[in-house]
Amino acid sequence: MSEKLTATCIVDGREYQVTEGLYLADLSTAIRQRVKQDYPKAKITDFICGHHLLKYRLASVDAMINADLKQSQKINRKLTRAMQSDDYEITDVNETLTKSLSFGERVADNVARFGGSWGFIGVFVFVLVAWMLINSLQLFGIHFDEYPYILLNLCLSCISAIQAPIIMMSQNRSADRDRMDAENDFHVNLKSEHELRILHAKLDHLSQNQIPHTLEIEKLQIEILAEIRTELADLRRERES
């Protein structure tokens, strides 16, 4: 094929120098398929001039740009739907629990908070020691609970019996807080996972399709500019002649 000085263009049937075009075998698969769509009987040994090849190159560039644009818009629509589909509102746990507190629940929280502090331990130890010293040494003439301090044991038992359910009430509220936090975390993680899956699809599209297409488009642009430059040079020579 390269030994021929001229070749016949498959589009207009005119004779051209082989340097003024390309054979179909030298074209990219996409452009060659476009030529074959218009000329089904075309063979890879057929020739197409640069002027008509320019049209197919421009069409191929437009097709790749439109395909990438449609795919990007499709992924963006999926991402938008994913962000709008979950109508679950993240609950402010502290605000919700604070608004729903009853008087008894507030008391239970305060009792549980104080009962688990060093202040409570200090006060409790002080009361126990004072109780035992007063009744053992009969200070100030007071002697209302002899050893083994049965009344003290009764008071401690009553305090424990009352304190335990109050602390359990506060713990139940803590369990409700944990449940609401877990529910919030579940919905956030589910939504994030869905969005990340779509973003991965977008990145895959960029790396597998759009970036190779961009490089192919740049290559075609260079070829188109070279063809335009050649045609301008031919027109300039025709005018000068």
Give a verbal description of the structure.
With 241 residues, the chain is mostly helical. The chain has two domains: 6-74 and 213-240, no CATH class; 93-200, no CATH class. The protein contains six helices and four strands, in the order βββαβααααα. The chain has helices at 29-38, 50-85, 93-99, 103-115, 118-137, 150-240, and strands spanning 6-8, 15-17, 21-23, 47-49. The strands form two sheets. A two-stranded antiparallel sheet has the order 1-2. Strand 1 (6-8) and strand 2 form a beta hairpin. Helix 2 runs antiparallel to helix 6 and helix 4 packs across helix 6. The protein is rod-shaped, with a radius of gyration of 43 Å. The mean pLDDT is 80. The chain crosses the membrane at residues 111-134, 149-170. It comes from Secundilactobacillus odoratitofui DSM 19909 = JCM 15043. Keywords: Membrane, Transmembrane, Transmembrane helix. It holds the Pfam family DUF1003. This is Cyclic nucleotide-binding protein.
Largest sheet: 2 strands, antiparallel
Strand order, largest beta sheet: 1-2
Series of secondary-structure elements, N-terminal to C-terminal: EEEHEHHHHH
Care to count the β-strands?
Answer: 4
- Counting helices, strands and paired strands, the structural category is mainly alpha
Strand content: under 5%
What general outline do the C-alpha atoms trace? rod-shaped
Average pLDDT figure? 80
Distance between the termini: 31 Å
Give the number of helices: 6
What is the domain total for the residues?
Answer: 2
Radius of gyration: 43 Å
Helix content: over 70%
Q: Any low-confidence stretches, pLDDT <50, length ≥5?
A: none
Keywords: Membrane, Transmembrane, Transmembrane helix
Transmembrane segments: 111-134, 149-170
Protein name: Cyclic nucleotide-binding protein
